[in-house]
Amino acid sequence: MDLTTKEKQLLFAGSFLALAAAGAGFVFRSMVPGLWGSHFEVSATEVGVLFGASLWPVAVVMILFSLVVDRIGYRLSMYIAMVLQSLSVILTVTAHSYTALWVACLAAGAGHGAVEAIINPLCASVYPTQKSKMLNILHAAWPLGVVMGGSLYLTLYRNATTWQAAETVFWFLMLPVVAYGVLFALVKRFPVDERVANNISTLEMLRELGGMGAFMAITFLCYELSVQLGFFTDDGRLWSCVLVGLVGGAAMGFAVKSKGRWLFVFLCAIMIPLAATELGTDGWIKKLMEPAMGEHAGWALVISAAIMMVLRFFAGVPLRYLSPPALLLVSSLCSVIGLYFLSVSSGFVVFLAFVFFAVGQTFYWPTVLGLVSEQFPRGGAMTLNTVSAMGLLTVGIFGFPFFGAVQDNYNAKTIAAASPTVLAAIKSEKRTFGRSDDKKPIYAEKSLFGVRYESINADAVVLQPEFPSAQKPALLAKLQETGRSTLRVAALLPAVMAVAFVFILLHFRSRGGYRPVQLRSHDVNPT
Prior knowledge:
By secondary structure, the chain is mostly helical. It contains 25 helices and 4 strands. The termini are close together.
């Protein structure tokens, strides 16, 4: 028997609320770090560790949970996610120490990862003939959470100056968490994954990942865990993890007797620039919106999320005329145009370019998930969650460091041209900035994946005693232009993606056009 329409609606609505809760929690945690630092008397670095604890477990849990979600079923899996999300709220509000707050953030990341690991294959199982459309609609929940969370905080808690004044905002997260728990409790029958319903074994699922897919997953998981657990040195971390990935990938390929699917590995690689484009540019775009929106620039990301939310609800319209690879190509071209004009425009045109970029990034993530689900249904939860995890892992490994290095290098060149004497004094005296217990060099030569660049803290430079105060406004104006230069470089990433999606389109055209892979039956047997 098929699931009834009501059962499908309850499952989809519950999944939607679970992801919305994760989105709202992300916004809350991104807005209160300064309050954490002053309340718990910790450095900016330690505050960064707190925020990172809510992010890095997401991808790790997504991949690992993919191995068990089919065995324990969707019902129990969602209740595990609910417990983790509820625990994160309770521990956050009641935390009396830095360690307790770190555990709360860790629970939030694990809960978010569990939610993503469950709802993506669940949606594909409930709607096997509408995967790309329904995954896009499902992922409208994330920007909805951002819009609701951001609007709530900026409206009611914007003037909060202490953690005690802001911590109650996290109780609002319990509303969607309790709501989706109730919705799932009302469902009498849960589906099994599409590949399970068609008697495709776990071994066959792992063959879709294969040695090449396992190499990528193991490499980036190793990198993330090595950063968090402190093994491998910074200089040799990447190549050490590549070696671990090669050994693990070879072992996996030998064990399951499969190299993996080249298209799946290609899509995992595309997630590197895709995640950097979608997630890594927000900081610079917000700064560029300040001249156009003034003190209300904090609403820029809320507006971007609102655009994304609305368009994802109507993803079925472009997908009626475009295949998933074609829609991804159009999105990439929109991002190139939006980022370029953000880097060269001013005034109201900046806002228009910002809207254009928001439209471009709307369909990236869920459409890639739809493409993977439609082309690799035998891979079940593993392939679907692995490609998503690749984006989350690599944005921290490549995306943020890449944009930071580009910005730092542009800043160093600008300051060297504007104030060579001050810079020379900073270098020769090896001056530092920051609190006495957290001193950092103002100027440093760094390396990112073997490429050397100069890094300089612009705020510390203008505070040096020999820096002429009259030159400060001019230098700050020039430094704002480095943000524009960074976005111009960022536009190369969706340009690379556009070429990749053209290649994928040509691949499908050579095979007679894009068609979802069909398993033996579309029926998903409820249990």
